[in-house]
Hints:
With 332 residues, the protein is an alpha/beta fold. It is 39% helix and 22% strand. The chain is globular and about 50 Å long. The model has no long low-confidence stretch (mean pLDDT 94).
Amino acid sequence: MTDRRFDVTAIGNAIVDVIADAGDDFLDAQGMHKGGMRLIDEAEATRLYAAMGPAREESGGSAANTVAGLASLGQRAAFIGQLGTDQLGAIFSHDIRSLGVAFDTPAKDGIGATARCLILVTPDAQRTMNTFLGAAQMLGPEAVDAALIAESKILYLEGYLWDPEAPRLAMRKAIAAARSAGTRVAFTLSDSFVVDRHRDDLNALFDAGSIDILFANEDEALALTGASDFDSAITAIAARVPTAVVTRSVNGAVAVRSGERASVPAEPIERLVDTTGAGDLFAAGFLAGEARGLGLEASLRLGAIAAAEVIQHYGARPESNLRVLAGALLEA
Length: 332
């Protein structure tokens, strides 16, 4: 592929994370499933925020975290996501642009508050997410810049945003633009609920050859395929998409392409603090390798390095320079 202005353009939820420590008893009292994600309305977001302990606010959103990781790896990235005209929206805009990520989606008034994710972190480092999508789910097809996608090597789509109708239409437009421009399309399933709600839609995308790289964790892979074991699940996915990438938490990750299978273990860490963003940063590392034309194993290793960094501190974006951590691997 000839050189393009951007390595990756991502479309996803523009969210500000509100992170607080919590015990299992608090989750039980709130009726939450530890480690899961639920969608909530603005009233519930306000109520839960009042019940939470001291919190810290950080820009987040799955695909936005991924482009933050790409920027830390020295890649050229752009982001498309919808904000409201409020303080949280201003925070998000400042944060993502300060990383060197191109972000030009105008904030809109009258579409609700900027999205927020109330994240409760238990002592075992599990994160339980409560997401108010607000303005993020109002991203429409008009926000998709076909020229921007044509200037990108890879288009990366966040599965969470496939759920609301307007952004789903936006992503369909983006896929069509990518196919016309020869831009590869990567899609992350994001959560098993996305699979359960949109299995037919997703299968239609695979059958149409619309997805070049599919990211899933082990639970999502099993949900998508209905397989009873991991090996059967990844074999089934690899038969549907050119490149299948499945993460397995402490058991590392596996990728399959054109009959080639590569796997890497999880990177060693000193201390597990917060698993928020692990999958997002893994995708950043893998996509960096893909954009550079590295092989499957090197791309998987970059993903494992990026994921290991982010789970050793609070928040879903890297605090260390990932390019330095990757070292010579980025030049392989």
